[in-house]
């Protein structure tokens, strides 16, 4: 079996230590943070729609960058406080100017298509963050774009920035009904060659994408950004053989493969534990993977040569791993 392609490209283990240089409240629940190089150097540029993985204590989470990506002297993210989350957003909300923080290099699974004739951006709630990055880049590069933004009346974070980019052409919706009633005509009335980019709650994104597909949009022109893999609840038990030691273990349906490996003292590098960062890739020697991650491409998934062990599982009874 050939070497897994994912192992060949940089993963988030490549990190930077940056300094918090700005903290501001965008709404009662959403706070924006900017991180800059401690030595004052410019940061690596990034593709619009990129995210970084922020490591804070034992928590790691990925956050979309809101800048355009061109010549950044700081990386800015917006973090919604999630009281029911894993504690990552609570830890982030404690950060203060002057603190140091470990972040991955930016990576993108939501890049704009340079050949698109027009970019139709659709955002709901905190999903505005990667879309704002796209909108800023489109404005800076003179690319044709438009934005439909759905938000609760009191929580239109980044609304002012969106208004200043789009002026009166920005379409704002403070309820789903008015958005739903104009979505169909928006999807009908785009120039040929338009690409659609959507970000927001999972149900919102799937309803937008489903309608676009029903109306004949080719899937290559539909792009979406998820904040974490849809883990789809517990899975089935399966067996894993570790080729290097010959050991065999059972992964129960209620545990991830990563947790099962940790349970027998095998540590696999990991960060997000949500299937987005790419850090926990493990080479597969035998068996088919039930891919639940958002990191591997469809082509990589079809090879069944890599499993993102924090969320993905075995399709059948068994997997053999190069561990
Ligand atoms: S730890 Fe991030 S994809 Fe598994």
The shape is globular
The end-to-end span amounts to 15 Å
State the share of residues found in helices, binned by percent.
10-25%
* Beta-strand percent range: 25-35%
Count of helical regions: 7
Describe this structure in words.
The protein is an alpha/beta fold and 323 residues long. The chain is 21% helix and 29% strand. The chain binds FE2/S2 (inorganic) cluster.
Q: Can you lay out the helices and strands and say which pair or pack?
A:
Blueprint: E1 15-25, E2 30-37, E3 51-56, E4 59-64, E5 75-80, H1 88-93, E6 100-104, E7 118-124, H2 128-141, E8 145-150, H3 159-166, E9 171-173, H4 176-188, E10 194-199, H5 202-214, E11 222-225, E12 238-242, E13 247-251, H6 257-263, E14 281-286, E15 289-290, H7 298-303, E16 306-308, E17 313-314, E18 318-321
Parallel strand pairs: 7-8, 7-10, 8-9, 10-11, 12-18
Antiparallel strand pairs: 1-2, 1-6, 2-5, 3-4, 3-6, 12-13, 14-16, 14-18, 15-17
This protein binds FE2/S2 (inorganic) cluster.
Concise description?
With 323 residues, this protein is an alpha/beta fold. The protein has seven helices and 18 strands. It starts with 14 loop residues before the first strand and ends with a strand.
Which key features would you list for this structure?
323 residues, alpha/beta, five-stranded parallel sheet, 29% strand, binds FE2/S2 (inorganic) cluster
